[in-house]
Amino acid sequence: MKNKLKYPMVIQWSEEDNCFLVGFPDFPGQKWRSHGDSYEEAVANGIEALESLIISYEAVSEPLPKPTFFKVAE
User: What is the pTM of this model?
Assistant: First the structure.
């Protein structure tokens, strides 16, 4: 599974929700997929949400979206 977790994860504080929201821009649908009260909790919940997304895609033989890769400044 680890090799499939190469998707960007967006973590953003929400004043309205009073927590960190987690999203995966490469996956269509809802913008936010998970959350956490702390940044660390949001990361852990985000990894779990991404694993669940991948499992659900594979369960219905849906091809996974192509991951976005960002060029690192040299």
Answer: 0.85
Q: What is the pLDDT of residues 13-59, one digit of tens each?
A: 999 999 999 999 999 988 999 999 999 999 999 999 999 999 999 99
Question: Would you say 64 and 54 are in contact if contact means Cβ atoms under 8 Å apart?
Answer: yes
For residue 54, the tally of other CB atoms under 10 A from its CB is: 16
Locus of tokens 């702390």: 38
Cβ(53)–Cβ(61) below 8 Å: no
Q: Which residue has the tokens 């999203």?
A: 23
Other C-beta atoms lying within 10 Å of the C-beta of residue 48:
13
